[in-house]
Amino acid sequence: MTAHHFAIFDTAIGRCGIAWGRRGVSAVQLPMGNEDKTRARIRQRYGDIAEVAPRAEVQRAIDGIVELLDGKPNDLADVVLDLEGVPEFHRGVYEIARTIPPGKTMTYGDIAKRLGGVELSRDVGQALGRNPCPIVVPCHRVLAAGGKPGGFSANGGVVTKLKMLAIEGAVVNHTPSLFE
């Protein structure tokens, strides 16, 4: 992935980041607790890239992300991603995940079946755990068997995933544990 620039922006769940290069958006960073931590995480992942005002198509992506996190059903299908360097299997998982509309969910097994067999479910989960563009590639809409939330590698873990799903009006079979 070639990220040359990034920007930080406000959303209903906190300050997010977005990174892009010539070919499109290469990363979305969910909030890391505060703006400085979000900025540091982007630089940790992509090096010393410049923080600049977003160009028009990146601003449209930001506007769509903000809308979605405000509860407006934006599928972000028009956001062009640069997934150069991302393994082919992962790209296949991300393409399927991008077809899940806001407020709906799919399971790891559903995606695995589309890619060749339910035995790929763990690989699907690993690909989603490495998703460089959460929200645009809506990994939060992918659940474990039985409609349970499953994992979520973003800051805040499953709590963040459930918050994002609640904003979209998705139904999740979840009983909080003592450890959340």
- Biggest β-sheet: strands ordered side by side in the sheet: 3-2-1-4
Count the beta strands: 6
CATH architecture of the largest domain: Orthogonal Bundle
CATH superfamily placement of the largest domain: Winged helix-like DNA-binding domain superfamily/Winged helix DNA-binding domain
CATH fold descriptor of the largest domain: Arc Repressor Mutant, subunit A
Residues in helices, as a percent range:
25-40%
The ordered H/E elements are EEEHEHHEHHEH
Protein described:
With 180 residues, the protein is of the alpha/beta class. The protein folds into two domains: 5-69, Double Stranded RNA Binding Domain; 88-168, Arc Repressor Mutant, subunit A, CATH 1.10.10.10. It contains six helices and six strands, in the order βββαβααβααβα. The chain has helices at 35-46, 56-69, 88-97, 108-115, 121-129, 157-168; strands at 5-11, 14-21, 24-29, 50-51, 106-107, 142-143. It has a four-stranded mixed sheet, sandwiched between helices. A two-stranded parallel sheet has the order 5-6. Strand 1 and strand 2 (14-21) form a beta hairpin. Helix 3 (88-97) crosses helix 4 (108-115) and helix 4 (108-115) crosses helix 5. The mean pLDDT is 91.
Helix and strand topology:
Blueprint: E1 5-11, E2 14-21, E3 24-29, H1 35-46, E4 50-51, H2 56-69, H3 88-97, E5 106-107, H4 108-115, H5 121-129, E6 142-143, H6 157-168
